[in-house]
Amino acid sequence: MRCRKLKVNPFRKHVEKLSEWEMSFIIKENAQLIQVAHPIMEGLYEIVAGSGFVIVLADKNGYIIDAIGNHEFKRSKELNLVVGANWSEKSAGTNAIGTSLCLDKPVQIIGAEHYCSKNHCLTCSAATIHDEENKIIGCINMSGNYSEAHSHTTGIVASGARLIEKHFALQESNKLLNVIFNSISEGMLVLDEDLKIKRTNKMASKILGISEEEILSTDINSLTKDMDFIKKILNIENVYYNLDCNLYIKNRRIKCSMNAFPIIFNGKANGIVITFKDEGYLHKIVNVMAGYNAKYNFEDIVTKNKDMKRTIEFAKKAAITNCSILIEGPSGTGKELFAQSIHNYSTRKNGPFVAVNCASLPKELMESELFGYEKGAFTGAAKDGHPGKFELADGGTIFLDEIGELPLDMQSKLLRVLDNNKITRLGGTYEKKLNVRIIAATNRDLIDEIKNKNFREDLYYRINVMNIKTLSLKQRVEDIEILANYFIHRLNSENPSCFKALSSRYLELISNYSWPGNVRQLRNVVERSYYLCESNNITEEYLYDYINIKKRLSLVNDEEVATIDDKNSEVMTIEEMEKSSIRKAIKEAKGDLIKAAEMLNISRATIYRKIKKYSINGY
């Protein structure tokens, strides 16, 4: 009935046949099925070899995509049992291939059971092949002279189809496993019980810098100098997590964090799985996410002052060395700008730039912040430990701003790190060797601090190999106008729909002001004027507004407060006003202490000290 509905001619002598070009696409589409099925077809053919049978593989649409035994079945070409021929019911009527695909079950068609008369000489047995989702992906068929028909043939073919399905599913699982294996962000090594590397992945190749084939031929003994932990794993004595280790390949040492655990079958370790991460790569990811990079260059330092230009040239010479650098200068003179520029001019420019404000570190957390901590080092510690700022700066630069604020005990620990280039995490026993360049900065006179026993002399000489002194704005008056215009240009770039310019009177007034807060204060004033001004021309009235605020807040100036006799009855009043001024500034800066310090024209260290002194909480 199906063949009549399909209007198949029972006397047709030919079936649909694909051209070589069309067939190449079908073969490519079914390459995996052919690869899996062909060895099984060869095994089946050995059973029937010499009996004149041909074994063919068809795709889900009935096109023959592989054949074995054509030389024995001499009429195979004449009867269209060749690659490219279509044996669906629509093309060849009732036949084992087409009917099996239609009914989705094993069938045997003998002699005249074939719809087309030309095939009455055949006996054919076929069974469908399914993928893991039970979808038909093809069909295996065994055909021969109808006089050789045997009921067992169908069972043989059905068994072959099931075997192909199992092998196909296994290959699909292996493909999935390979995808998973190679999508893991860690390097992976699978060792057998003889500690030979049997499997690896692309990330391992990337970390080690050699091909996967080279890894498979590498002796694990040459890859790591510490085999004890591997042997312990094989004896199921231990599982290792986050083990710091070194891997050696082609005269290179790679610092890694490693996990290792046994492959257990029937209570016995038959191998080991090792996963590892390149610590340098991990730190790069952390540094990118945390923003540990330097964005400024020497070209970003705006000046026409000769002394400033000489300072820049000296800083460039210092940058190309590996020496420690001490940058000294008043607050707001661009010490971090110089530090970032030095980093980006040096050979470490592709490494991290980690800035640490020593004044803002709580004393009780200072060591763990700088040097990191191991798991369980203290209550609330992360379960896997945490790298410190020095570790994160490995291969790059650490900028220790306001280094004069470090307590003496931390100065001693810092000196030790500078002397041997190693750190030990809090709660740890393992020393990690680091390659970090130190740039320190201070607005204090460290020589006076040494005299007052507040700073270690040996640390001073250790960090002060190269010394850079930044200039106050009072020393570079000619830069005031160009800096102000530079800040306005930057603000205009950030707000293209709101172009503004400074009036000549505004520029005249700022050029005659002393700027005790230096460039930081100037930038703050210009930005404030820019956002307060509603026209395109920023006039001096916005400058007066700032100066009035400054007069109100000038009470917090340390020198002014220090001149007042502690026993004077006015002290409390001044302290209250100072506290109130700090609160107002913090509120106006929306809790940003750095901005608040800029508004008050005091250093960051001073505002932290005042907040602590007056117990200002919650901001």
Automatic annotation (TrEMBL):
Residues 301-531 form the Sigma-54 factor interaction domain. Residues 173-217 form the PAS domain. It holds the Pfam family AAA_lid_14. NCBIfam families: sensory_box (TIGR00229). One of its GO terms (molecular function) is sequence-specific DNA binding. GO terms for biological process: regulation of DNA-templated transcription. Keywords: ATP-binding, DNA-binding, Nucleotide-binding, Transcription, Transcription regulation. It comes from Clostridium aciditolerans. Gene3D superfamilies: 1.10.8.60, 3.30.450.40, Homeodomain-like, P-loop containing nucleotide triphosphate hydrolases, PAS domain. This is Sigma 54-interacting transcriptional regulator.
